[in-house]
């Protein structure tokens, strides 16, 4: 079952951040910092949807920031998207590297050769394949 994603629109007003979850009636919050706003928004959504407090950390939120400068807002959104893509690619590369390093060593290749083939240091291949050598 996929969990819902709650859209949160954030605006800057008089030195504070105001947040609104438009799809949830009465789900509003404010804070002086964005870090504090994140927690306040999660608390409000948990209350609005009638979820247990433990669900706060697992909420999926889609943030829309409106600082008053549309061009900056768009650039910041593009950067956040690029960073999310980079994080996903990095996770995929790490998983693929681990799997390939194990396969290569299982097939009898040296740690050094496996390292060259997957593009990491021999020390990293040794870490990734330590369980193979222990058994």
Helix content: 40-55%
Mean pLDDT: 93
Using the CA coordinates, give the radius of gyration.
Answer: 22 Å
The proportion of residues in beta strands is 15-25%
CATH topology of the domain at 1-68: TTHA1013/TTHA0281-like
The first-level CATH class name of the domain at 1-68: Alpha Beta
DSSP strand count: 4
Task: Please explain how this structure is put together.
- This protein has 135 residues and is α+β, with helices and mostly antiparallel strands.
- The chain has a domain at 1-68: TTHA1013/TTHA0281-like (2-Layer Sandwich), CATH 3.30.2390.10.
- It has helices at 34-49, 70-106, 111-118, 122-128, 130-134; strands at 5-13, 16-20, 28-31, 60-66.
- It has a 4-stranded mixed sheet with strand order 3-2-1-4.
- Helix 2 (70-106) packs antiparallel against helix 3 (111-118) and helix 3 crosses helix 4 (122-128).
- The model has no long low-confidence stretch (mean pLDDT 93).
SSE diagram, text form:
Blueprint: E1 5-13, E2 16-20, E3 28-31, H1 34-49, E4 60-66, H2 70-106, H3 111-118, H4 122-128, H5 130-134
Parallel strand pairs: 1-4
Antiparallel strand pairs: 1-2, 2-3
Helix pairs in contact: 2-3, 3-4
């Amino acid at each position: 079952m996929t969990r819902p994603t709650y859209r949160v629109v954030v605006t800057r007003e008089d030195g504070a951040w105001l947040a609104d979850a438009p799809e949830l009636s009465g789900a509003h919050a404010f804070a002086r910092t964005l870090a504090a706003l994140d927690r306040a928004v999660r608390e409000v959504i948990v209350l609005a949807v009638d979820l247990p407090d433990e669900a706060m950390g697992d909420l999926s939120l889609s943030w829309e920031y409106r600082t008053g400068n549309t061009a900056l807002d768009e650039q910041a959104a593009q950067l956040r998207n690029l960073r999310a893509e980079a994080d996903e690619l990095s996770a995929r590369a790490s998983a693929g590297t681990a799997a390939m390093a194990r396969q290569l060593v299982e097939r009898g290749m040296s740690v050094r050769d496996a390292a060259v083939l997957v593009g990491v240091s021999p020390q990293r291949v040794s870490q990734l394949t330590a369980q193979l050598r222990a058994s």
